[in-house]
Amino acid sequence: MPRPLPNQRFAFARAGRVGALALTALVPLLLCVALCYYESARIVRREATIASTFIVSQVSSIIDEAHDAAQQFVLHVDDACDVLMPNLSLTAAVVPYVRTIDVIDEDHVSCSSVRLNQGMPWGAPANGMPQTPSGSWMMLADSTPMTPGRAALLVGVRASDGRSVVASVDGRYLLDLMRAAAPVGMFRRVELDFEGYPPLSDTRDGSSSDTSPMLADVRKTTASGAFDLRIYGLRAHRRAALLGLLANYLPWAAVLSALLVWLVRRLQQSRRSRRERLLRGIRMNEFYVEYQPLYGVASGRCEGAEALMRWKCRGVGIVRPDVFIAAAEDEEVIVPLTQHLLKLIARDVARMKLKPGFHLGINFAPDHLSSPRMMDDIHALREALGPDGPQIVVEVTERSLIRNTDQAQRNLEQVRKEGAEVAIDDFGTGYCSLSYLERFPFDLLKIDRGFVLTIDSEERRAVVLDSIIDLAHSLGARLVAEGVETQTQYDYLCGRGVAYIQGFIYARPMGVDAFCQWYEATGDKRFAPRESKPRA
Ligand code: G
Ligand code: G
Ligand code: MN
Description:
Layout: H1 6-71, H2 81-94, E1 98-105, E2 108-112, E3 136-141, E4 152-158, E5 163-170, H3 171-181, E6 187-194, E7 200-203, E8 214-222, E9 225-233, H4 235-283, E10 287-296, E11 301-313, E12 317-319, H5 321-330, H6 334-349, E13 359-363, H7 366-369, H8 374-385, E14 391-397, H9 398-402, H10 406-417, E15 421-427, H11 435-439, E16 444-447, H12 449-452, H13 463-475, E17 478-482, H14 487-495, E18 500-502, H15 512-522
Parallel strand pairs: 11-13, 13-14, 14-15, 15-16, 16-17, 17-18
Antiparallel strand pairs: 1-2, 1-5, 3-4, 4-5, 6-7, 6-9, 8-9, 10-11, 10-18, 11-12
Helix pairs in contact: 1-3, 1-4, 6-8
The structure holds guanosine-5'-monophosphate (G) (2 copies) and manganese (II) ion.
């Protein structure tokens, strides 16, 4: 896949930054809404559970009282009604919730707590009711002979000879209880269901559709049978609970979200400002070049130099090159920075009076090497240097070859075709894959200072260094030894056919003025190695 161009990459990066900010802002808000939504459902369900628990326990104790009241008369159904009735009346008056107590014989009232009811037809035969094993039963009637036009709960107990004692509870009590425990604004419908009968239901909002969720469904078994209580939710109440929670918590989530956005933004800015500092450094001309001479072992004189970039950042001071070059690579400004460096080099070289064939090493970063613009930049440099300019040596690290692209290979081939040279820098410090040595064309290998340091004064063989030297010879490449500081190292390397020595033992990197002076005075002189002196 082709790598996107830098301005395209910049647009991606910008979109990425905006996206990250949007995400940072949204996550706490969405999380808060989701939690409030979940919490409002929980609250509504809890309300329904509390209401249903209360209603069920009250209804079941009403049933038990009615059952106990009826039970008292089971053994007295044979008594004459004149004798029985005052007792029935008294009990019906005293027991809470119970309206009447009647003795039913087959299908008529044989004796009632209410004088008017004596002998009334009772509808269905009471002994046909579905009964519990103990002979108790209950039924919900929407109207009774005793309380016409009004729902009633009848709780009966079987007595001898097909007779029953029935206590009736006014449905109003039950409805009032449901209404009190489950207030109108909270639930849409409360339903008390006695098996086999249409439920006693308290619907509060006829307008809303019947899709309200069931919040509670409790079944209770009593001595007289079982019943169910169901509570259906009211959407408006759920919405109100949600809005209440949001009003409480959303402002905090918004504060958190603002705080996070601020933090992320600061992080982005500090990264951005690193990029801007580099670009400003270019504009303000804060970069300059130092040149470190290379000693040619065969000719015995200076045969080249490596251009090394330096940065004196305003307000910060000298920034180490490994630091700002890594930053420039991260921030994708290494290409403009190197283009700037090439201009500085062209300006400096014009003052240098270099001998023909002088090698000028210039470091190119991986991004630049795999960019199609590299050749244009090199052409521009050569044009600026003129026909008698120095021999350009493109220094690339192993790192940039490993990561490499076809474009890098094409660039290197083109560089050599046009008469410049290619050096592999910091050789031996990269990955241990040597396959790229065959694939990529190069002229020079620069042995990293780390290997030069393995030479010790006892003249023992530096094994890895030796094999690198052998490898370079067999590939037909010339060798540059970097970081040579001692005479021992110098002698060892010269003795093994290293072509160039770069290091403090010969010369340190110098600014353009110092280099011009040095080159005029020393460049042509045969070099007599002494241990490197500390920097003046
Ligand atoms: O000499 P000095 O300590 O500055 O070198 C530090 C590192 O910075 C070396 O690895 C060198 O290759 C790298 N470096 C110096 N100048 C440049 C440059 O212009 N471009 C790139 N890509 N690297 C450079
Ligand atoms: O691009 P390259 O990694 O080749 O850069 C060479 C680096 O090595 C520069 O940072 C330069 O200052 C440094 N250097 C050059 N000669 C010596 C030396 O003799 N000793 C030490 N310690 N560093 C050196
Ligand atoms: Mn280098």
